């Protein structure tokens, strides 16, 4: 009988070790699959957010281009701008801002000098004369064309 007990102990030890190894392999496989799924799912969501953001920026850029073109065609605004008459420019641009704010949620209209110095903030007319430090403004000056995109404003909000 003693010989049988000696044979049973190694069998159970081997069986226990085999089960532990099997559990470790199964746990590792489940962990790897879950990590892989999470990574792929996250990447898919990030790609979708990037795609939707690009669509949103393109749509907003088109809308703002139309608004800017309409402002540029306003003869009263053009005359006040060319005359560098801040008060008259504010007089004609304020109703435009009010209108586009109500219709499209546009909250700011800026008039910049070619060197990026702010001539008039229609939403804040007493605040002018400072240079606007924004990537989009700098790119527009450098490229001498319309540039669209997003940048962080003074208070950390997207512009």
Write the layout of secondary structure elements.
Elements: H1 2-73, H2 75-82, H3 86-104, E1 110-112, E2 118-121, H4 135-143
Antiparallel strand pairs: 1-2
Helix pairs in contact: 2-3
Defining traits:
159 residues; mainly alpha
What do you see in this structure?
The chain is mainly α and 159 residues long. Helices cover 68% and strands 4% of the residues. It contains four helices and two strands, in the order H-H-H-E-E-H. It has a two-stranded antiparallel ribbon with strand order 1-2. A hairpin with a 5-residue loop joins strand 1 (110-112) and strand 2. Helix 2 crosses helix 3 (86-104). The mean pLDDT is 87.
- Which sequence of strands runs across the widest sheet? 1-2
Integer-rounded radius of gyration: 33 Å
Distance between the termini: 86 Å
Low-pLDDT segments: none
The percent range for strand residues is under 5%
Shape, please?
Answer: rod-shaped
Q: How many β strands by DSSP?
A: 2
Backbone structural class = mainly alpha
* Quaternary status: single chain
């Amino acid at each position: 009988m003693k010989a049988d007990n000696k044979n049973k102990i190694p069998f159970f030890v081997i069986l226990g070790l085999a089960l532990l190894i099997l559990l470790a392999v199964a746990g590792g496989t489940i962990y790897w699959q879950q990590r892989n799924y999470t990574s792929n799912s996250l990447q898919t969501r990030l790609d979708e957010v990037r795609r939707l953001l690009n669509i949103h920026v393109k749509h907003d850029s088109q809308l703002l281009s139309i608004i800017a073109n309409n402002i540029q065609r306003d003869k009263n605004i053009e005359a006040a701008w060319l005359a560098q008459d801040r008060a008259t420019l504010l007089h004609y641009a304020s109703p435009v801002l009010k209108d586009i704010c109500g219709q499209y949620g546009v909250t700011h209209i800026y008039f910049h000098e070619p060197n990026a110095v702010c001539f008039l903030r229609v939403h804040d007319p007493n605040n002018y004369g400072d240079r606007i430090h924004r990537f989009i403004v700098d790119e527009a000056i450098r490229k001498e064309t319309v540039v669209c995109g997003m940048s962080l404003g003074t208070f950390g909000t997207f512009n």
